[in-house]
């Protein structure tokens, strides 16, 4: 595998201080607004990935490809958020990591369901593929850090007023379609579960799809 998780950060509020990162890294942002249908604001230059509005709690997720090792993009501006989490991923040489939507699940239950990836959609041409999971539970006693879905491990979690959020990933290459996966928590509560793919893709191409050959450059021929 060549995808690496570089750092993670979470904060109960509208801002987040990024962990270690470098130019070309994927910064994945996840914002939650407790007990409100108002979706957190998307900061300038962050690309929106997913939104959900619900009276019990609303989410906005986005990402940004870092332009330096001291980014400020996406660290502020999540108006109406009660929690902002940021995870940094890095690809190998001459590659970047990009996120793609997979599935969402929500209900009020002690059984959390992470829905399956649609059969036949596995991206087998990616250089590497990980899965990422996010869970928010409107309960503060479910110990989400110790209740990862099978195949993933906890990255970080945070307990706020009336809610807990947690993030997970496979920390390894995924080679098969993600099946519907359940996790049973101690307490029934409204929850929202989110799964996405992290794809490492090659960037060693020239504009227009051609391959750069310095010996055939027009200035020397």
Characterization of this structure:
The structure is a single chain. By secondary structure, the chain is an all-beta fold. It has one domain (4-220). The protein has strands spanning 4-11, 26-34, 47-52, 57-65, 83-90, 95-114, 128-137, 153-159, 164-169, 181-202. The strands form 2 sheets. A 5-stranded antiparallel β-sheet has the order 1-5-2-4-3, with no helix packed on it. The protein has a 5-stranded antiparallel β-sheet with strand order 6-10-7-9-8, with no helix packed on it. The radius of gyration is 19 Å and the shape is globular.
Query: What is the percent of helical residues?
Result: under 10%
Q: Report the strand count.
A: 10
What fraction of residues sit in β-strands? over 45%
Average pLDDT for all residues: 92
Oligomer: single chain
For the biggest β-sheet, the strand order reads: 1-5-2-4-3
Shape, principal axes of CA atoms: globular
Poorly predicted tracts of residues: none
Intertermini distance: 41 Å
Order of helices and strands: EEEEEEEEEE
The biggest sheet, with number of strands, parallel, antiparallel or mixed sense and barrel status, is: 5 strands, antiparallel
Report the structural category. mainly beta
Number of domains: 1
């Amino acid at each position: 595998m060549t995808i690496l998780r570089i750092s993670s950060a979470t904060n109960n509020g509208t801002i987040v201080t990024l962990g270690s990162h470098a130019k070309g890294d994927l910064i994945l942002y996840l914002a939650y607004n407790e007990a409100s249908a108002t979706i957190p604001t998307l900061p300038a230059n962050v690309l929106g990935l997913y939104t959900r509005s619900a009276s019990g709690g609303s989410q906005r997720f986005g990402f940004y490809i870092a332009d330096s090792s001291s980014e400020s993009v996406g660290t502020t501006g999540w108006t109406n958020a009660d929690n902002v989490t940021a995870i940094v991923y890095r690809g190998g040489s001459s590659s970047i990591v990009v996120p793609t939507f997979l599935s969402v699940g929500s209900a009020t239950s002690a059984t959390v369901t992470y829905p399956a990836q649609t059969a036949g959609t596995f991206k087998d041409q990616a250089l590497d593929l990980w899965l990422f999971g996010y869970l928010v539970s409107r309960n503060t006693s479910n110990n989400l850090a110790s209740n990862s879905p099978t195949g993933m491990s906890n990255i970080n979690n945070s307990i706020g007023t009336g809610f807990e959020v947690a993030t997970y990933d496979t920390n390894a290459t995924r080679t098969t379609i993600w099946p519907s996966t359940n996790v049973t928590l101690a307490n029934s509560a409204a929850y929202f579960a989110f799964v996405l793919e992290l794809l490492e893709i090659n960037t060693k191409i020239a504009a227009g799809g051609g391959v750069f050959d310095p010996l055939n450059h027009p200035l020397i021929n």
